[in-house]
């Protein structure tokens, strides 16, 4: 036998194992059901009357192990974003040829991992964002040179993990969004009042309207008013958000913020009337019972706010029966959620506690539930509505106020094209 055959390296095994994605999904479902079944056993009311030595410690240990199993099972479905980033390379080459523009593409964060279910749905949104950047954002070489820029443009496709979110961005160093053109078009379509002067965040939301376009003519790449609606609808379906940053003459950056995994959610469970709601725990900054004198009804905006540490926090009632009326706060709790546009207070009757919930998608008519992003299966066996506080903030996609979180979304707002 040769020495090479005796060396340890000759028997090195492959550390990787290829597994079908549907089998991992089945495993996630089983682990989720295991958690629900274990909770149904350990949380039996009659067990509290028994003197079983060590039972409470054993039940807690079981819960910890199940959470670890859920985390590990979720990790099995994570794949690097390089899979979707690399698909964009050919698109970029085609766009450079079609537009006649010169630009370099920089890929950052390809090693960041995200749920495969998410990756499979990212191609269309990223494709539309890159097309917009190449067609609308980046200027032709003569225009760039005249503006004191390099003739070659720069387009960056990046990703980074922040907590339990992944932030993906498409950025260019082009001309930026044309505020005046967007405002004029928004007024023509009745999205903005003829004398209103909205701030940038409100105005940029108009480009997500279906059929919205400022292009003077229809081309193979733009002018039809479709594209950004695909982006917004897809990202919302993934429990994510779209953010826009732009500066005239300097470029535009559009960020997609998406949960790392869609299977489980660490949440704060609350009750309003006879309904349960799950709020992502990483968005909760505080909860308190407000004093009556700190609650103010704004006559200008018709919003109800609570003064908290010198800040006016808009309030949203989660009680379905509350409707458009101001939230009744006597004896109730306010859960303050931090969003990208400020804080919002969610008014509830009772705080149940923190737990990791199993997430299921909203389907059928449930898709129109205001503020809802999924069904949360609790360890008690009950079902809660998972909420996205971003959808209740002023200037956000669903607006702010005292609408019940379960009121059907009768807004005609729909995303569109840049």
If classified by CATH, what would the architecture of the largest domain be? 2-Layer Sandwich
Largest sheet, in brief, is: 6 strands, mixed
State the strand order across the main sheet.
10-14-15-13-12-11
Q: Name the average pLDDT.
A: 80
Unreliable spans are: 394-418
**Beta-strand residue fraction:** 25-35%
Task: Domain count, please report it.
Answer: 3
Question: How is this structure best summarized?
Answer:
The chain is α+β, with helices and mostly antiparallel strands and 418 residues long. It contains ten helices and 18 strands.
Keywords:
418 residues; alpha+beta; Heat Shock Protein 90; SH3 type barrels; six-stranded mixed beta sheet; five-stranded mixed beta sheet; 28% helix; flat; disordered C terminus
Structure write-up:
Mean pLDDT is about 80; it is low at about 395-418. The protein has three domains: about 20-45 and about 55-75; about 80-260, Histidine kinase-like ATPase, C-terminal domain (Heat Shock Protein 90, 2-Layer Sandwich), CATH 3.30.565.10; about 265-390, Roll (SH3 type barrels), CATH 2.30.30. The strands form four sheets. It has a six-stranded mixed β-sheet, with no helix packed on it. A five-stranded mixed β-sheet has the order 2-4-5-7-6. The protein has ten helices and 18 strands. A hairpin with a 2-residue loop joins strand 12 and strand 13 (about 310-315). It is about 30% helix and about 30% strand. It has helices at about 5, 20-40, 55-75, 80-100, 115-120, 125-135, 140-145, 180-190, 200-205, 230-235, and strands spanning about 80, 105-110, 115, 155-160, 165-170, 240-245, 250-260, 265-270, 275-280, 285-290, 295, 305-310, 310-315, 335-340, 340-350, 350-360, 370-375, 385. It has about 425 residues and is an alpha+beta fold.
